[in-house]
Amino acid sequence: MTTARDIMTPGAECVRSDETVLAAARKMKKLDVGALPICGTDDRLKGVLTDRDIAVRVLGSGKDPDATRAGELAQGEAVTIGADDEVQEIMATMAEHKVRRLPVIDGHTLVGMVAQADVARALPDPEVGELIDALSVA
C-alpha cells in the first residue's frame, strides 16, 4: 500500500498568513514551487497559495502584491490529506475538490505536499488517465 508519506515531497515550507503575496512569490521562486501552504501564527494550516492565485486573484484584479496578505487568499477550510492515507484516497480527494496539490498532515502538523505528478507516478497507467480526466473537468 502506497501512502501520501511514501510519495510526498517532505518538508514543505509555509507562507505565513500575515506575509505579503510578494514575499510568497519570492519564496516560490527560491524554492522552485508553484504552491505554498498558508500557515497562521498558530502554525495551523489555513489554505494553499498558488502561482495562479497570485496571477489571477492579485495581479489580474489590480491588487498590490506588496500590500496583499497571503491569508487574504485562503479560501475556507484547507483541503488536506493524511500522511498515512493511501494513493486511492489522495486521488479521490484531488478529484472531488479539483485540486492538483494537497498539503499532507500528520495530526495537525504539516509534513509535506503531494502533487498530481506524485500520484501519477504511483498509479498504474489506466488510473493515471482517470485522475487526469477527473481534474480536467471544469
From TrEMBL:
Pfam families: CBS. The keyword Aminoacyl-tRNA synthetase does not apply. This is CBS domain-containing protein. The keyword Transmembrane does not apply. The lineage of its organism: Bacteria, Bacillati, Actinomycetota, Actinomycetes, Kitasatosporales. SMART domains: CBS (SM00116). Residues 8-65, 73-131 form the CBS domain. Keywords: CBS domain. It comes from Streptomyces hazeniae. InterPro entries: CBS_dom, CBS_dom_sf, Diverse_CBS-Domain.
